[in-house]
Amino acid sequence: MKRFASEGRDRRGRLSGPGWTWMFVLGTSALQTACSDDDAAGGGSYVGSATQTTEPPATTTEVDPTTSSTDSTAPTGTATTDEPTTTTSTTDEPPPALMVDCGMLPKGAQGAEYEHQPTASGGVPKYAWSATGLPDGLTINPNSGEISGIPTTPGEYTVELTVTDLEDNVAMASCPALTVGDQLKVDYDALAADGPCVAAGGDKTILDYITGGDGSPITCSTPAGTGDGKVPMGLGVDGQSCAITGTIGESRYGNWAWIVAAEQSGVKVYAPYCAQQAQQAPKAYAIVGNHSGQMDNALEPMVVDFDPDQPLRLDGDADPRFEVKKGTCGDSCFFGFLYRVSMSPFGTGACKDDKDGCFGLCPLVADANEPDGDKAIQCSLLPLMGTPKTGFAHEMWAKGDVPPEEFKTRPFVVQWSIDYCLSNAAPDCQGKDAILANGDNSSFEFPVIFRPQ
Known about the structure:
The chain is mostly beta strands. The protein has two domains: about 100-115 and about 120-180, Immunoglobulin-like (Sandwich); about 185-450, no CATH class. The chain has two helices and 34 strands. It has helices at about 190-195, 430-440; strands at about 25, 85, 100, 110, 115, 120, 130, 140, 145-150, 155, 160-165, 170-175, 180, 185, 200, 210, 220, 235, 245, 255-265, 265-275, 285-290, 300-305, 315, 320-330, 335-340, 360, 365, 375, 380, 390-395, 395-400, 410-425, 445-450. Strands 15-21-20-17 form a four-stranded mixed sheet. A four-stranded antiparallel sheet has the order 22-25-31-30, with no helix packed on it. It has a four-stranded mixed sheet with strand order 23-34-33-26. InterPro entries: Cadherin-like_sf, Ig-like_fold.
């Protein structure tokens, strides 16, 4: 998140000669009045004084045809004038002292966006700002004083601010320590100790595995791009608590995994979430899976660590391995399957031009005559020896190029969606429509979670 400390600035407009006083002496036999004007534009303080004098009524003496009038008694030899006399005095108030306030510098974090606004007051705007002691990656705007950037090194920093106003007055402030914390991360080892993913129905979220950061609020989202897996119908993730919400509404059997992104101050970290639907259709085939050195764990996601600088590959030599059984298929047993794979960094590179493609369910075996050193072979019927046959076994493999930069430091998901068909009649399991029509709603969802080493 971005944090700001607001700045208030006081700009004053001044008339030339603040504090004027006007005094008028009127050369007339009427009432003499002096007045002051307090309504001048621009504000400020105006101080003045005025004197009001009341003269007795004028007296007329008829001595001769000449008429004289007297405005006031004046000493002999003093002449009177009809022109007004103006007396002006001025006072100047110095501006308030220039001051700078650091405010409370918020905590930062390595790699996270940082913004803070100190404030200045007094003096004569406009202000010029400078700072010393800022962490690498942070700068101060010389005009506004805003401190911003992305710090690169954790630590405690002593920052000093300097403000210079238009008349070269200077104010300085030594700020409270600026703390830059470690970069926001997910502790994948701690997550793996609790399970392959943050599971629906559990009491943990990605927030329980986050370390570092700047302490500001974290929000969560479910991106829906390459490598982000699939959120099952009926479920979501709360943006504030990061907890799984809702009830799974899928009818397909298996497990779903998807990626949740947690964001703080422009930094995103990722963790896999998962949920299972353990109820099969009434006539669906039995599906038993083994992977990751464990037995009968088909409903648990598989986790694979990958080298981010090498081409991607999932080929564990029968890890994973799944057995699909109908009960009795017959002495002659035919199988078919359809599968879909979610978008991921797999399916890229040289495998796109290979005859085996980039994904498969039947095993890969080494073959020095093949350009890529291996080839896909047929899946095996079960049991391997004898009749009647009850089903078949399959594996799971995928190939891809070196992952792009964004996946070198974050996990991603490959979600497999499979539909099966078993029959003693070959046409029943040939082609998509036949498989879906004759497979007794035998479906399976299986996610593989990839984590960078």
